[in-house]
Design goal:
The chain is of the alpha+beta class. Helices cover 29% and strands 33% of the residues. Helix 2 runs antiparallel to helix 4, helix 3 crosses helix 4 and helix 5 packs antiparallel against helix 6 (338-359). The N and C termini lie far apart (65 Å).
Length: 367
């Protein structure tokens, strides 16, 4: 089914921020394993223009192990566009001539749908002349097994000075169906898809370059730091209190939450996206190699370990790269070499700054 609708574009369906204006939305799906869907959205907000790429996968074609893998496989990337990039995109949209390609495709599709109708008509029951005792067996079209969702595209464009009030959507199978006996092919559809895929590849190249420069931006799904154990007993108001703390930043129903537990006190508060952005900046500044330092041959290594200290656990869940899981006890460090001790202590100080920042959002006393 193909629609051409010159109407306003729904911004809610495209998940753009409140107050933003949608300029372009492009959706493309494929009948294949691995990357099956890509969505590109361009919107304007507060005088700036942003490009968003979303991706969906059926299975994985690779294990993400480096920044290049993150740039290719990131589920969602939002990047600000420069004025030069905006100019390039608008120029490419005009050059693609989507309205002309669509009109040619619609004409071709109408011919194909007439063929399908005539093809199916031969399998409809026919009335036989009175007195004819011959039975007519009705042949039915062969059922084709589909292992993937059909291929699909959708475009919606409302960009003054470029293209306005434009929407196109079409669903089709690339595996054989009625096309078994259709020899004309779909050249107009192929030309439309070639132009659409080329334009989306141009957008994808911009996103890839940006993600290579900002690999861990927007990657954190949740942050959790907890403590437990230790030999000290805590008595509050004559009551023995179960020791332990936890700070948790996670997203639920589209809303970021900071949850905390400190010695049987609990609290949860909603926070804005600026909180997760700041936490990402702090996490990206951490040197995780400090927890697993590499030493030179014949270098003296003296590590301070604490068996009865309070244990800590850090878990950071990410969209694209693997989950970060680390643990240890307070008081641990490296005595020799000095550089290892300084790096380890700096890492723990950085983690504590994240916990203090998130803990400051909660109404919990640290007693």
């Amino acid at each position: 089914m193909t629609l051409l609708i010159f109407v306003g574009i729904s911004t809610k369906a495209q998940e753009i921020p409140d107050g933003a204006t949608l300029r372009y939305y492009g959706e493309r799906s494929h009948e294949r394993y691995g990357l099956t869907r890509q969505y590109f959205t361009i919107y304007e907000q507060a005088g700036a223009t942003f490009l968003v790429r979303r991706q969906m996968f059926t299975g994985a074609e690779e294990i993400v192990q480096d920044i290049d893998g993150i740039a290719r496989n990131a589920e969602k990337v939002t990047m600000p566009l420069t004025s030069r990039q905006v100019k390039t995109i608008r120029k490419a949209l005009k050059k693609a001539r989507f309205p002309e390609l669509l009109q040619t495709f619609l004409a071709e599709q109408q011919t194909y749908e007439q063929y399908v109708k005539a093809y199916m008509a031969q399998f409809e029951p026919r009335l036989l002349p009175p007195g004819d005792t011959t039975r007519q067996l009705i042949q039915r079209p062969k059922e084709h097994v589909q292992f993937h969702a059909p291929s699909h595209w959708r475009q919606a464009i409302s960009w003054p000075g470029t293209l306005e009030g434009y929407e196109s959507t079409h669903t089709f199978y690339t595996t054989p169906t009625y096309d078994d006996n259709w020899t004309s092919g779909h050249p107009a559809r192929d030309r439309y898809l070639t132009a659409l895929d080329a334009f989306h590849q141009q957008l994808n190249d911009m996103v890839y370059a940006y993600k290579m420069q900002h690999p861990y931006e927007g990657e954190i799904q949740s942050y959790r730091f907890s403590t437990s154990g230790g030999m000290m007993m805590l008595i509050v108001d004559g009551k023995r209190v179960r020791r332990g703390t936890e700070i948790n930043l996670r997203k639920k129903d589209g809303q970021w939450l900071v949850c905390g537990y400190v010695n049987e006190q609990e609290d949860t508060v909603q926070v804005g996206p600026e909180v997760i952005q700041h936490v990402e900046e702090l996490v990206n500044a951490l040197d995780f190699s400090a927890l697993h330092p590499q030493f030179k041959d014949n270098e003296e290594v003296v590590k301070v370990e604490v068996d009865d200290g309070i244990s800590w656990s850090l878990q950071i869940s990410c969209h694209t790269r693997k989950t970060i899981s680390e643990w240890g006890t307070f008081g641990e460090t490296y005595f020799e070499p000095k550089r290892a001790g300084k790096a380890y202590d700096a890492f723990m100080k950085g983690v504590e700054s994240i916990n203090e920042y998130l803990g400051g959002k909660l109404h919990i006393k640290r007693r």
